[in-house]
Specification:
The protein starts with a helix and ends with a helix. The protein has 426 residues and is of the alpha/beta class. It has helices at 3-12, 16-31, 37-48, 52-62, 76-83, 120-125, 141-145, 218-223, 238-243, 311-319, 343-353, 375-387, 416-423; strands at residues 88-89, 94-95, 151-155, 161-165, 168-172, 205-207, 230-234, 251-254, 259-262, 265-270, 290-294, 299-302, 324-328, 358-361, 399-402. Helix content is 28%, strand content 15%. Helix 1 runs antiparallel to helix 2, helix 10 runs parallel beside helix 11 (343-353) and helix 11 crosses helix 12. It has 2 domains: 3-125, no CATH class; 141-423, Ribonuclease Z/Hydroxyacylglutathione hydrolase-like (Metallo-beta-lactamase, Chain A, 4-Layer Sandwich). The strands form 3 sheets. It has a 7-stranded mixed sheet with strand order 8-7-6-5-4-3-15. The chain has a 6-stranded mixed sheet with strand order 9-10-11-12-13-14, with helices on one face. Strands 1-2 form a two-stranded antiparallel sheet.
């Protein structure tokens, strides 16, 4: 099916979130056109295929788009290194999952039971967002940095969190910008982060899972350009960092199953079932990964973004049991389950990994799917109660220590009644 037909189907079937994503990426392609006539023609076709709506969006977005946010994909010697990865399909010229073609074709109709028909304007109005600010705690950084035998965590929403692992500070998928998008009025965060970048403690390591805008944020990366912070990424992602001012000797790229040690902490890149790309074309030029962080005292798993597959069990067999598993649980849809976990699959992944505690992430700060802001935590809480899962779900910014004294406080319950009525789920 040609691209215009595929996108027309998205609109016909009321899948405005995917259609809007197509617009967004297409506009960026035109605005950042650098001489590739094929890409230019393709981008113009994408914008114009549905007439006035595309033109209106294009006019607004072209005034604000920042081409540098798209970043630089691997080229030259870096590309040659990428091509040597066992995960790189030379014939297709892209990285691939162990299960082939899972992201194709583009879904043309949403069928998940939590989905309702929506309009483009409802989407832009932010349906599914909380009607009030979610409770936020100003982190006590003195408490966070105090020496301890426990893992300490601060969650900033979505997949951004900070670890104190035996004195090593590790910042995961930092997104501190107002928008997880190249277009400043799409994918707006619910509220300001619990800390501004300048308020963070000294960060030893930044770990990135993949290159999507809600996980790799140019503003957050650039903040560390004049600091001694090291970056650890899947193979290929370092190209973006180099383009944003991070020195090459501060970047370590790993392929799946490769290890890297910093002081007493070992970082292991492990498989995930997802995809990559920031341009809307020429995708999967950088690898995506989940991660294991471990030292002599602790063992932590971070899923990145992933659909459910046998890699969870394989990772659990190789590196488990884990003290805690940070697993994606949000921005899902039945038609996207090949690349995003449903709540019941998050629960199964927890058991596959042999984890002692489950910390659900990828929710609580951005709307990237049709479900309400609270549905992911409500559903995983139900699974945890039903299956005996030790759930960890602190407030935004709250400093927690991972130990047997940690208790679950369902802070979201008092907020969802009015939002449930508005969303039509009550």
């Amino acid at each position: 099916m040609v691209i215009a037909d595929r996108q027309a189907d998205l609109l016909h079937n009321h899948d405005f979130r995917l259609a809007t994503f197509v617009y967004r990426q297409s506009i960026v392609e035109v605005a950042c056109f650098t001489g590739n006539s094929n890409n230019m023609v393709l981008a113009i076709k994408k914008i114009l295929f549905s007439g006035a709506a595309g033109v209106v969006i294009a006019i607004g977005a072209l005034t604000a788009v920042s081409c540098s946010m798209m970043g630089e994909i691997p080229s030259g010697q870096t590309l040659e290194k990428v091509k040597r990865s066992p995960q790189y399909n030379v014939k297709e010229g892209a990285f691939s999952n162990r299960l082939s073609k899972i992201t194709s074709p583009i879904p043309t109709k949403i069928t998940h039971s939590s989905t309702k028909d929506a309009s483009l304007w409802q989407l832009l109005a932010g349906n599914g967002r909380p009607t009030v600010s979610l409770p936020t705690v100003k982190p006590d950084l003195v408490k966070f940095m105090e020496p301890s035998d426990d893992i300490k965590v601060i969650w900033f929403g979505h997949s951004t969190f900070l670890l104190n692992l035996s004195g090593t500070t590790i910042l995961i998928d930092p997104v501190f910008s107002d928008y997880a998008s190249p277009i400043p009025w799409l994918v707006k965060r619910f509220q300001p982060p619990a800390l501004m970048l300048r308020e963070l403690p000294t960060i030893d390591i930044v770990v990135i899972s993949h290159d999507h805008y809600d996980h790799l944020d140019m503003k957050s990366v650039k903040f560390f350009s004049d600091k001694p912070t090291k970056f650890i990424t899947p193979i290929g992602v370092g190209s973006y960092l180099l383009g944003w001012g991070i020195e090459a000797d501060k970047i370590t790229e790993l392929d799946w199953w490769q290890h890297h040690k910093v002081g007493s902490t070992e970082f292991i890149a492990t498989p995930a079932q997802h995809f990559s790309g920031r341009r809307g074309y020429n995708n999967n030029q950088t690898l995506w990964a989940s991660w294991v962080f471990r030292n002599a005292q602790h063992n932590i798993y971070f899923s990145g973004d992933s659909g459910y597959a046998d890699h969870f069990k394989e990772i659990g067999e190789k590196f488990g049991p884990f003290d805690i598993a940070f697993i994606e649980n949000g921005q899902y849809n039945l038609n996207w389950r090949s690349v995003h976990l449903l709540p019941e699959e998050t629960a199964q992944a927890y058991f596959d990994l042999k984890a002692k505690r489950l910390f659900p992430i990828h929710w609580g700060m951005f709307i990237l799917s049709y479900h309400s802001w609270f549905e992911p935590i409500v559903k995983i809480d139900q699974e945890a109660t039903r299956q005996g899962i030790n759930l960890v779900a602190p407030k935004l910014g709250e400093v927690i220590a991972i130990n047997d004294q940690l208790k679950l406080h369902r802070w979201w319950q008092s907020l969802i009644t009015d939002d449930a009525k508005k969303d039509g789920t009550e």
